[in-house]
Fold this protein.
Amino acid sequence: MTDIKVLLVDDEVEFASALSERLRLRSYEAKAIYRAEDAIPFVKSDKPDVVLLDLKMPGMDGIEILEAIKQFDPTIEVIILTGHGDTESADKGIKTGAFDYIMKPVDIGELITKIEQAKKKKNSR
Amino acid sequence: MGFEKEQNLRVLQLCFIGKILSGFTHEVKNHLAFIKESVGLIGDLMESKKSLSKQDLQENLTILHSIDEQIGKTSELCSYLNRFSHRMDYPMCTFSVNESLEELIVLINRFAHQKRIGLEKDFQKNLPMIYSDPSRIQLIIFSLIEEMINKYDKNSRIVIKTESLKDSLMVQITPKGNVVTSVGETRLSSFEILQDVIRQLGGNLFQDDKEVKITLPLSEQALTETN
């Protein structure tokens, strides 16, 4: 295991479970949750280093979750996952405090780089 | 139904198509994301379990890699289609002409490819953004390119060039090849319609034997931003 705890929040169950499995195979302590409402309680109990957050989920807006995470612990870095063709919502996320964003379908190499950079930033605080 | 109501209904229909398209492309991208992760996971598992010979592993990984590439290309097309569908969200906005043309060229490339006509870009870098109607401009450029595709022989090329002038921006479309059909009356009337639309947007549309030129005004607000 690396010392990086990653939480993936995405209502696309199959996508999230395959991606979290791929991260685990690369020795990350990765967990996935599929309901927007579960995100904040899970973040509070599990205290991940990096959250991969889908912005468009039923039940709760991704930006609201991002705000709540940052309010709880500003050192938790959030990387936005977005399937949108435009970057409008991702830009909004960055303005709200997200570390970065990545478009779906995800390039695993690019994602790993961003996770490592996010953790580095967290450690430097 | 009166003319104005008919026109309004037409606008609603376009918005409707745009929304359906954007929702559809978003969904397709979600499915592609899952397929991509599954393909990646199969590759990861094959590499980690070492149950295959080196040669078999390599062959399987090559197949998975080509699937991954196709997913990437499909996803890219969906992104272009998604952006295209969002062009109808606002009638007037500040946007990059280069990006809207890039998107259009990707989406209409198949029509050109079927006639073995190449679409080539010659875009000026750092072209100023403009305040205009992106969907209408795409429609006009499409109509002009489509006509050239119909009019020119296979192995011709159509070069789409962008350039900033003093107070305006120019899109120049130049066909390079041999004409196979003659210009008809219907074409002329549709050209006049396109000309009217460009004039409504504050620009001009000129055509001669060699090329078509469209100029579009740069607004003061748009001048401060570059793409």
Remarks:
- Chain A touches chain B through 19 residues (CB under 8 Å).
